[in-house]
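Support case: user asked for a sample of complex input and structure output to validate their parser. Sending the pair below.
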Amino acid sequence: MEYLLSKNVEYVCECGLLKPLTNLYFCRHCLNLRCFFCCHHEVDSHFCRNCLENIPSGEAKLRKNKCNTCFDCPSCTLSALSARATTIQVPMTKEVKEGGEGSEIEASSGKMVSKKMYYLACLACRFSSRDVGISDQPSQNFFWPEQEYMHAIRFNTILNHYYSVVLHDKQLKQEERRRRSTKQSKFPNMTDRTGLNVSAIRRQMGFDKSAAKPKSKPTAIAPSIAEDVDDLPEEIFTQPINLKNITTIQQRFTQPANQPESVKHLYPQHKNLSIKRSIRCRHCEHNVIKPEYNPTSIKYRIQQFASSHVPEVRIIKCDQLVPNKSALITLKITNPTMNDMIITIMDLPTEEEEKMMIEEMRKNFEKNLSVSNKSSLMRPSLIEDSRIVSCKITAKLELPDSSFVINQRDDSAEFDDDVQSDKKDPKFILWRKANKIAIQLSITPNGELKVNDDVKIGFSMNFTYSSVPSSTPEKKETQRYALCARIYINAGKIVQ
Amino acid sequence: MSKLENKIKVMPKAVVCEDSTIKGDVTICSGSVIHPSAQIIAESGPIIIGENCIIEEYAKIIHRIPPDHKLAQEKNHVLVIGANNLFEVGSTVEALKIGEKNIFECKSYVSSNVTISSGCVIGAGCHVVGEQHLPENTVIFGKNCQQREALDKVSGSHMLQLDFLRKVLPNYHHLRKPCDIKKAANLS
Ligand SMILES: [Zn+2]
Ligand SMILES: [Zn+2]
Ligand SMILES: [Zn+2]
Ligand SMILES: [Zn+2]
């Protein structure tokens, strides 16, 4: 994992944040890197990650984003409870015969019947529903007794109060609007987006006889009054406490409604639902990530991960770093695309150039926004200005003197014998293998660095990117673009 | 400590695989099952393993009193392990007193400073070090070794598993012959 999620090499997202390539997306339409923070996040669907039931968003809201059938362990708060069966002997009665689920087997005595009963247990911490006094249930899918909350009624009155306040406000606003619109014109303009609905028009035209509905008043609530709090009991200072009986902060937070103090009140909690999320580029409003709808599927319908479009840079090895002494660093660059890439390594832009880039980006975006303002269903995106990269370079990098080509990715090439190309490669290229290339550059850490300071280098990598032919007619042919990625590398620490 | 005299007593009906490493004076009571490549090392004194224990692969039971331990002066300390204990794969137990019906989950570690009563569960990967006594029905779990008390008896009766192992293990492994001290000495 360390190797896969290495943070030594970071790319600059268009918004100016530094991220490892694995955390970045690539918008095919803007041809730019996008990160978690500069994209729209949308909830696609709700599902329970334990039973994998798909729950429509409306129903999820009704269920308070919790699964009806699955429970989380309240004790260790990290695993789901599973139902376990026990067999008990019960005297045979009519009730059991009719109400049982056919699981009972007639015992040999004729009088006793063994019956399966279920309880919930956690496999990680051995918590069981019997611990808190929940009796065993006759069926696995039985609705387990719901916990009652002290303040449930109070919460409901407050909730209802605010619902009525919202309703009241809405009515006031509507009335205000109606009054104003009648002044302007007698005939409502259908195309005008004033929010006039059919009933309002009918009322204006005098069709609706029951127009004078009584105004709803917010239901009153009794404000809560602070009670006098008793002093702490004397023994709290003198008696030793048994930590095993007191809940941890985390255990209390998983039950926000009653926040139990004693482990005796740790009831099984309904499992929170998970979401499938799609991620959308803020600039062009195309999806960069869209998962498949089915909760059991882990695939994507759209997946624009940067690691499959942008060449990946990794450190192979680096010499010992000493201030003012040049050292060699070996980098591996991998071409993830199906087209050959021409790569040029250049200096990073200076601060002024960076500011200009940001300015230009904003102008471009504003222009695009005014052009594409045609009946977009989406609200216009709020775009934050890109920021200046916060990372400071602490070493001088000797740039390679020429561009180089990295072959396309070829999944079958792995099985081929190594074929050496006839072309003479420049000296800084150590080796090439299929779609990978290793280059060796020399770096000189700055003089003012001390022992254990990080040595940061950075460069701009220009690469050619061939767009994937899409179905739209104007983009049928692959187009070649010259793109640029800014890369910051932490080469290591200064040693003495 | 270089050469331990092996005095292994296997009571009848115990299933002890020959590929297990048993060193020192070890008594295995009837009904217990010891898997191949389990280790039982009686360095500082005899070990007596109670009835119906399961000691799984790569589990280590070590009777080794460190020199700074309070029991270090005591001669002939016997490590008595109660009945119905389960030592899961890769657990290491150095405790000098172990009661009954305990479960040592995978990769757990119990140091020699700890005494264990009955009905305790040491969760997977939990390291219990530092001088302490685990009262009955203690459950230790999670990466921070959180403790709780199981109010309900930890249900795990492993009788079914024992019956199965007693049936299956002899089909695939050589077993140590029960109650034959001379033979055991020859083996080493
Ligand atoms: Zn970003
Ligand atoms: Zn569920
Ligand atoms: Zn749990
Ligand atoms: Zn875009």
